[in-house]
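Before the break, one more example. Copy the sequence into your notebook; we will annotate it together after we see the structure.
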Amino acid sequence: MQSRLAPLLRSVNERLTGKKLVGTDLSGNKYYLHRKDSKHQVVHRSVEYANSDVKPETVPISAHQWLRLAREAFPTHEEMRAEREKAIELQNKVKEINEADARLRLQEIAERRMGGQQSYEVDLSTEGLIKQLELHHELQKQQQKQQQTQREQ
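Here is what the structure looks like once it is written out:
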């Protein structure tokens, strides 16, 4: 009985409020069309967040495009899943690039410390990188102390 009443209640609510639910995203946020008058002209589109912790920047790109009238049809869940997978893939690539960059910077620091000698092997494991970074910071502190002492003399 309740399942037959739900569409009727939605229809009555839509006519009274002028607000029509057009879809949800993977996080449970609800997207609405707001109609102005009996001609059903669309005034604007809006999102109702599933909870108060949701940040606007977490809205899927395709849903954001729909909200800003850059696309007509509301995106499907398949489109939003594909977007999410691409975003995760991109984040992983960025992480890999940042890690590789950190390794190269630490290797350059180690080579400079050894006076450019190529025979020095740098431990590129996470623990090795952390040790190298700690050593580098410790050397910087020592150099700053030495410079401060020289200035005071």
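The chain has two domains: 2-75, 81-152. The radius of gyration is 29 Å. Try to locate both features in your own notes.
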